[in-house]
């Protein structure tokens, strides 16, 4: 049997976390033993990890007072423009000891800290580093990361666009890496089954119920949702916008909602391990992200045949065809409002999008599993 280890910071709400759990649910445990190293306990997706997986908690990521001060100072005087994960690793890497256990294959299932840890601390015959974001827009410095990435057998990007963002930075420093593409895995059958579970909130039938799923973080562009909701209300539409997720921007969003007097029209639902009943029940699914490595929630909404409006981050064009399987808006609230209004006012367009989505073949799960098997053999 081959011994595999996956490393990710936590199993809190997120696309990479959800994809990893789905992958773990589809591994053949007669052929592999699997360890999962986490640095934070209690993530919402932990309960979904198969019992065959051995979860190992590493608490070395906790900062002491001195390290917190060092991090704050480095962040304030960050002349090299390093990403916060790169700054953090410089401070705490000495806290991490090389693991005694040896593996056949190790997977750093996200960029940044996880990738640095697997490089320095994990013994494995092969190592792969996942890239599930827009490398350029997230602000990583390739001069810091390249010496680490070159120790891996390959970097695995979750989309052609994510691969390109890393290649652009490599070209700038005139270096190359082996970069493969394996899309984040989603299970259409499981999504449909979970979407049939009871909806915790009653949606009004005389209202356009809009749903957005994602972390409450700046990169998800959720201020655009609030601003767009205001514009729709001002135009006389009966709209309620449900934002499903949790994160560091909650207070900021709550203040914005109150400022625009939208407390009766925008609901921050909070965290759930099953957003699919919300997706299924909505009139329109809207994604407001400023960038995505892939955009897994858009894929999930499409698998439920929902009319979709999405901002024009590069990877969305691999998921939606504008005007045929969804509507793609510019990254501003006016464009989002215009696209949503098209669906509200044109039932023929809405029905056409839904029909086109229902006719799509979905072989993504099988393709991803085959590509993963090919990678580890």
From TrEMBL:
<dbReference type="GO" id="GO:0016757">
    <property type="term" value="F:glycosyltransferase activity"/>
</dbReference>
<protein>
    <submittedName>
        <fullName>Glycosyltransferase</fullName>
    </submittedName>
</protein>
<keyword id="KW-0808">Transferase</keyword>
<feature type="domain" description="Glycosyl transferase family 1">
    <location>
        <begin position="204"/>
        <end position="356"/>
    </location>
</feature>
<dbReference type="Pfam" id="PF00534">
    <property type="entry name" value="Glycos_transf_1"/>
</dbReference>
<dbReference type="InterPro" id="IPR001296">
    <property type="entry name" value="Glyco_trans_1"/>
</dbReference>
